[in-house]
Every structure is written in structure tokens, then in C-alpha cells.
Amino acid sequence: MKSKDKGRKWMWWFLGSLVALQFYFVIELLTLLALFAAGFVALAAVGAAGTAMVYGLSAGWSLAARQAAPVWVAAQRGWAFVEELGLRPFRRPAAAR
User: Fold this and answer.
1) How far apart are CA 23 and CA 30, in angstroms?
2) Dihedrals φ, ψ of 92, to 5°?
3) CA torsion angle for 32, 35, 36, 40 (degrees, to 10)?
4) Distance of alpha carbon 47 from its chain centroid, rounded?
5) What are the tens digits of pLDDT across the range 28-65?
6) Does the pTM of the predicted model rise above 0.70?
7) Phi-psi category of 18—alpha, beta or left, where left has phi over 0 and alpha has psi -120 to 50?
8) With 70 as the cut, is the pLDDT of residue 21 above it?
9) Span 81-97, mean pLDDT?
């Protein structure tokens, strides 16, 4: 009877340790799942911030181009006028002859 009780005692210890190991592995897996979820949330936040930044830069560039268009047209006209003046022959004033 004594050896039977001793065997049962070791059997219960073994089963208890298996259950404890199962709980340990489940806790480890849940922790890993939480870490992966946090990592993916961080990646999504970086991606969303990058997308917002690119959108903001694009909108800012578009606004700047719209505001600078009249200045650009005036500069082109001025440059064309200067080129036209450069192509004309140079004539001295009548007093300098």
C-alpha cells in the first residue's frame, strides 16, 4: 500500500508540473502576442504619420506652386523682354557722334 501511495504522489506531482508548464507556455504565447501586436501598432502609427507627412508636403507644394505661378510668369516675360533688348542693334545717341 505504501508504494502505491508513493507512486500516486509522484503521478500527481508529474501531472501538476505538466499543468504548470502548460500555463507557463500559454502565458509566454500571450505575452508574445501582445508584443507583436504592439510592434504592429507602432508600425501602423509610423506608416500613418509618414502618409500624413507626404500628404502635407504635397498639399504645401501645390499651394506654393499656385501662389508662385504669377511671379514665374512675370519673370518669364521680363526675361523675354531682356532677350529682345539684347537682340536689337546698339545705337549711339545723336550727341555722341
Assistant:
1) 10
2) -80, 150
3) 170
4) 4
5) 999 999 999 999 999 999 999 999 999 999 999 999 99
6) no
7) alpha
8) yes
9) 78
